[in-house]
Amino acid sequence: MPEAPATGAAAAPRTAAAIHPGARIGHVHLKVADLDRALRFWRDVVGLEVQQRMGDRAVFLSAGGYHHHIALNTWESAGGAPPPPGATGLYHVALLYPDRPSLAAALRRVLDAGIELEGASDHGVSEALYLRDPDGNGVELYRDRDRAEWPRDAAGGLAMITRRLDVPALLAEAAG
Predict the structure, then answer these.
(1) For residue 11, what pLDDT band results from cuts at 50, 70 and 90?
(2) In this structure, are 158 and 100 located in the same domain?
(3) What are the b/e assignments for 6-16, b being 16+ CB within 10 Å?
(4) pTM attached to this predicted model
(5) Rounded to an integer, what distance in angstroms lies between the CA atom of residue 75 and that of residue 78?
(6) Which residues pair with 152 in a beta bridge?
(7) Residue 2: predicted pLDDT
(8) pLDDT (tens digit, 9 = 90+) per residue, 70-117?
(9) Which domain holds residue 132?
(10) Phi, psi angle pair for 92, to nearest 5°
(11) Are 168 and 156 in contact (CB under 8 A)?
């Protein structure tokens, strides 16, 4: 019987070509228990726009009219419970805002909706807010700093950090 190929850290490095640098994460589908409840979070709090709805089974949302960045569906999860702690699955979905005032406006909507932040971090390369949607999915709302501002180590490599984000200072940038 032939031996199975090695996997994990002991596996030989792959020599396949790297992904094209223009590739991006196009969209994420989230399984939800209640479509309307999830829609109130993703549309009314996060601010995504509905592009298409398929009854009580799915809705496709985006920023700027794209076909969808986030899809919510109940195809396999209607009435379901969130995964238990310690289970595998999605850690979080991250939404990138174009600038600090846009992130501040998102923070204002989150707080106005009575949603608690699980964390708020300055990573040197970005500023990030962490929370959960109604189905327990992790959500990161963040903005990147200009690449020229990213922290670097002595060899020029990326040196990300995790420091407490000054939430009141960010909130002060929210218009209105």
Answers:
(1) low
(2) yes
(3) eeeeeeeeeee
(4) 0.86
(5) 7
(6) 158
(7) 47
(8) 999 999 999 999 989 899 989 999 999 999 999 999 999 999 999 999
(9) 90-176
(10) -160, 160
(11) no
